[in-house]
Each structure stands twice: as C-alpha cells, then as structure tokens.
C-alpha cells in the first residue's frame, strides 16, 4: 500500500467499508474524479454503483443520478443514508412537500447524491432547479434504455443528450450491464458521449452453469430440477405470460415448493409485498414475467429458470445474471421448444413496430435461437455475442461442455420436411403449421389428414423413421438456421430463400441430437 491514501480509496474504506476495488472500478472512478466522461459496460453485480457514488462524494457538489428504476429509489437512498451519505431523490411518487425538502437540500449544497427519474429531467422546472445548485457529475444508469432497438427502450432517455448541451462542463458517466458493441456505439451517439472513455469488463459469470433443454413438459421438468438440484434454494422462474406465471406458481406451491407470482397484472401492493418477501426470506421461488428483476440485488439466487424463450440474448443474459451474485455455483436453465419459435415469430409479425423494428426483433430472436441450437460451448457463444470472443473456449460448466451433444446429418429429413411444405404449397396451394406437416411425414391418418386428402401426397409416410419429437427438433433447427420460416396468425410453415439449397442437396444440414431429458451433474466448484 502506498503511503498516502487516494481520496477514492479513503471513501471506499471509510464510507462503504470495503477494503479494495473490484475489477475496473478504480480506473473508472479515478477517470471520473478527474472530470472525464465514461461509458461503463459491466455485468450485473459487477459493482457499477460505486463507480459514480465515490466520484460524487469526492468531487464538490451533488452527483445527479438518472435512473429508470423509480421503485428502487427509496431503497437506494435509504441504504446510502445508513452509510452516512447525504442522498435524496425526486420522482413522481412524492408529494409537493416531500419534493420541496429535497429541492432545498440540493440548492443548499446538502446532498452528495440526487436520484432523478429520466422523465423529470425533461421538465423545465427540474432543469431550473438543477441550475440553482452545484452538480458534480451526471450518472446515467441503465444507459441501454436509450437504445431504440433494445428490450428496455425508454423514450425519455432520448432527451438526455441535452445534459451535455445544457451543462457542458459536468462530467457524465453512463453505465449499463447490457450492450453489444453496436449498442455501445448507439449509446455513445445518442447521449453525445463522443469523448467518453469506454470501460468494458468481462461478461463471464463463471459460477453460473448454463443449460438449455428441449421443452417437453416444462412444469414437470422444472419441478424435477428444483427437487433434484435446488431443494430449499431461492430462485427465479421466468414465464412469458401472466397466465402462465400464475399457473406455474400455483403448480409449484401445490408440489410443496414455496413460490410467489409477480407480474404487471397483480395489484401493486401484492407485487411489492411479494418482492420484499423474496428479498428478505430464504428459499422462496419467484415466478415472474420479465417485469421482475431489474435492479434486484439478492446475492443468493441459486437458479434462474426460463420456461419460455427470451426474446434476445441480451435479455437472457440479464435475466440469468440475477443468479449467483455471491459467486457461488448457480444454475441458469432454459426449456425451449418449437412452439416458442412459432409464438415469438408470430408476436414479431403482429407487433406495432415498423418493418425496421420487426427486422431487428427477428435478428435478436435468431441470435437467441442460435444459442439454443449450438453444439459448442454455450458460454463461449454468449461471450462471443458480447464481443468477447477471445475469452471463449470451452468452459466445462455448461450443458454442451459437460455432456457434448451428438450431432447427426439431418440433410435427408430436412429435405423431406421442406418438400412437404413445398408440395402442400405447389400442389394444393395450402400452408400448414408444423403439426400437420409432421403428421403427413409420419403417415398418420388423422381427421385433418383425411379431410384434406393429404394421404394422397407423395410425401405421405416417408418420414416414419423418425419420432414425432425428433421431427419437431428438425423443424426447430431448420427455423433456427433460416432454412424454414413461420408466418401468420397460425404459425404456418413457409420456405425461405435458402430452402432451395437444402432441397438441391447443396448443403449438409447438421443437427443436434435430442437427448430426451438430458441430465447434467452440477459440479459444486469449477475447475
Ligand atoms: P451492479 O449495479 O453492477 O449490478 P452493484 O453496484 O449493485 O452492482 O454492486 C453489487 C454488489 O457488490 C453490491 O452489494 C455492492 O455493495 C458490492 N460491491 C461493489 N463494489 C464492491 C467492492 N469494491 N468490494 C466489495 N463489494 C462491492
Ligand atoms: Zn461450456
């Protein structure tokens, strides 16, 4: 240790009670104390808050923190106050007199940190207020919310470029846990952070074991997982719809696992109560839509399970990242099936956005599907997605590393399936979903087959060598690879520009063998 303690280290020890900085905290903090702008990309749990809190305490004036997490402001401010930090917040939950107290404190220079909601900054009153005090820095938390292509877009964030115009001499630090290099560039552009130094910390979460399983009976699969590997553990289960949140929570409770629901359809008091029970009690399972979790800091979440496919790799990473913040072994488990692909494509197609939005959503989904279907290390694929390819390799702590999936040459089945779709369309002018195409291939005499006389098609029964489940895997993987597409309300299968290559025999289609209910042992420590 050097003789004179730096002011930053002094605050870290004295105020926060931590002996040392983590990762790139020291560099970031020194840079901002020196008046520089910064764009910080650090995974969830990496310790972003100190990166602006310490400079705010060291620099003269008040650090203004822009955060979309209004529901957490009170907690954040309370936590800081117990440490003796003079903190306050301004947001729409306050009444006039509460606001006035905070405003006076700010103007009188009695605040180290002031949290404000992004919509507040657009208001002329707030801007005039800020002019009356001394600002030490602006911290823009959850900065990816400025990205129109991201999954957390907040229109109010677009207005934050005015910070630089109105207060050009105040250093700004933007922080996020989720950004590809493209999003990073977008953040820098939209926030006018052109001269900001970029700090990027590794996204690897070595204690999280990534597993993606074929979805058969998702609730039962989940129950097996919890009983065999996570008895008594705290965890989060993500579902796409409110209805499935309610059903799953009920199902777990009926099976003796203490579970609580969380989604936007619940009364806000119930939601708040469930959230605070989850944070305070041990061994609760929170079953939730993705409305739950942003900013949640519970260190001992032992598993995050997804019963439905996340819309993007960013979302998947952020949601699974809520597991194992304490560094202990944790599981990220996802059940994924053909229906997920059909449903998500449908949602994209029927979304309100324009063509560019839909194309973007599609690309996000494709990346997620590629992660699901990969036969190589999940972690390597995940890190590569975040531009950290060099750190990739084989991790030894994901399902594909622990039980390498067999791959098989699926070219012929792929051709059979694609020709079924082709014949239905060419010979009959019909489009059907995956179920009917598979029934035709299997040669099943269902009512629907007879009604449409599909047993007269040349392809009828030519796929009896595979099981229904295997055919669903074939369809899924063709969708993931883009050799097949789904469209419309009923999720009908259609050919794509690249289907012809497969039909012509121009490409070999390697597929992941479906191990029914593949079980992976959890190593308690990682080599
Ligand atoms: P993030 O916002 O990046 O998700 P936080 O700022 O909430 O992460 O920090 C996560 C946890 O790590 C918090 O409990 C915080 O107190 C703790 N922490 C941050 N920096 C340090 C440090 N240098 N030493 C010890 N604990 C730290
Ligand atoms: Zn791996």
UniProtKB/TrEMBL annotation:
Span of domain Helicase ATP-binding: 29-197
Single GO BP term: DNA recombination
Claim: Plastid is one of the keywords in the record: no
Domain (Helicase C-terminal) ranges: 218-369
Gene Ontology CC: bacterial nucleoid; cytoplasm; replisome
Gene Ontology MF terms in the entry: 3'-5' DNA helicase activity; ATP binding; DNA binding; four-way junction helicase activity; hydrolase activity; metal ion binding
Keywords: ATP-binding, DNA damage, DNA recombination, DNA repair, DNA-binding, Helicase, Hydrolase, Isomerase, Metal-binding, Nucleotide-binding, Zinc
Cofactor: Mg(2+); Zn(2+)
EC number(s) reported in the record: 5.6.2.4
Name of the protein this chain belongs to: DNA helicase RecQ
Organism this protein belongs to: Paractinoplanes tereljensis
Whole-protein residues included: 1 to 527 of 751
């Amino acid at each position: 240790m050097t003789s004179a303690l730096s002011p930053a280290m002094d605050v870290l020890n004295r105020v926060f009670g931590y002996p040392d900085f983590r990762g790139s905290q020291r560099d970031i903090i020194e840079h901002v104390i020196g008046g520089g702008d910064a764009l910080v990309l650090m995974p969830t749990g990496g310790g972003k808050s100190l990166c602006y809190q310490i400079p705010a305490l060291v620099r003269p004036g008040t650090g203004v923190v822009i955060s979309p997490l209004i529901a957490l402001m009170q907690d954040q401010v309370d936590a800081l106050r117990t440490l003796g930090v003079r903190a306050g917040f301004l947001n729409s939950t306050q009444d006039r007199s509460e606001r006035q107290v905070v405003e006076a404190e700010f103007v009188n220079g009695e605040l180290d940190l002031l949290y404000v909601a992004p919509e507040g900054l657009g208001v002329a009153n707030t801007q005039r207020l800020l002019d009356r005090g001394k600002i030490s820095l602006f911290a823009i938390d959850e900065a990816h919310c400025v990205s129109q292509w991201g999954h957390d877009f907040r229109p109010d964030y677009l207005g934050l470029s005015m910070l630089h115009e109105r207060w050009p001499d105040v250093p700004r630090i933007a922080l996020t846990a989720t950004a590809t290099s493209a999003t990073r560039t977008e953040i820098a552009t939209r926030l006018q952070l052109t001269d900001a130094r970029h700090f990027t910390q590794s996204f690897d979460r070595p204690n999280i074991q990534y597993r993606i399983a074929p979805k058969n009976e998702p609730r039962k699969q989940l129950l097996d997982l919890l009983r065999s590997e996570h008895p008594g553990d705290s965890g989060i289960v993500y579902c796409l719809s409110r209805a499935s949140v309610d059903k799953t929570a009920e199902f777990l409770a009926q099976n003796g696992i203490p579970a609580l629901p969380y989604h936007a359809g619940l009364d806000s008091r119930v939601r708040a109560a469930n959230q605070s029970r989850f944070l305070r009690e041990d061994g609760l399972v929170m079953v939730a839509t993705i409305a739950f979790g942003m900013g949640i800091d519970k260190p001992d979440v032992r598993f995050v399970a997804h019963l439905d496919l996340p819309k993007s790799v960013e979302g998947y990473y952020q949601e699974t990242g809520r597991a194992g913040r304490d560094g202990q072994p944790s599981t990220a488990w996802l059940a994924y099936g053909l229906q997920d692909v059909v449903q998500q494509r449908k949602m994209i197609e029927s979304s309100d956005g324009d063509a560019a939005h839909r194309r973007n959503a599609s690309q996000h989904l494709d990346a997620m599907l590629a992660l699901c279907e990969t036969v190589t290390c999940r972690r390597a694929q995940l890190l590569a997605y975040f531009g950290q390819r060099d750190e990739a390799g084989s991790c030894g702590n994901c399902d594909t590393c622990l039980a390498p999936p067999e791959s098989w040459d699926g070219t012929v089945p792929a051709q059979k399936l694609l020709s079924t779709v082709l014949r239905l369309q060419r010979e009959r002018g019909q489009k059907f979903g995956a179920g009917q195409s598979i029934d035709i291939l299997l040669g099943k005499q269902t009512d629907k087959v007879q009604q449409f006389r599909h047993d007269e098609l040349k392809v009828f029964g030519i796929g009896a060598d595979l099981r229904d489940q295997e055919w669903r895997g074939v369809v899924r993987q063709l969708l993931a690879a883009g050799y097949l597409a789904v469209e419309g309300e009923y999720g009908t299968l259609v050919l794509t520009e690249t289907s012809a290559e497969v039909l012509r025999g121009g490409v070999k289609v390697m597929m992941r063998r479906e191990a029914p209910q593949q079980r992976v042992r959890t190593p308690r420590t990682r080599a």
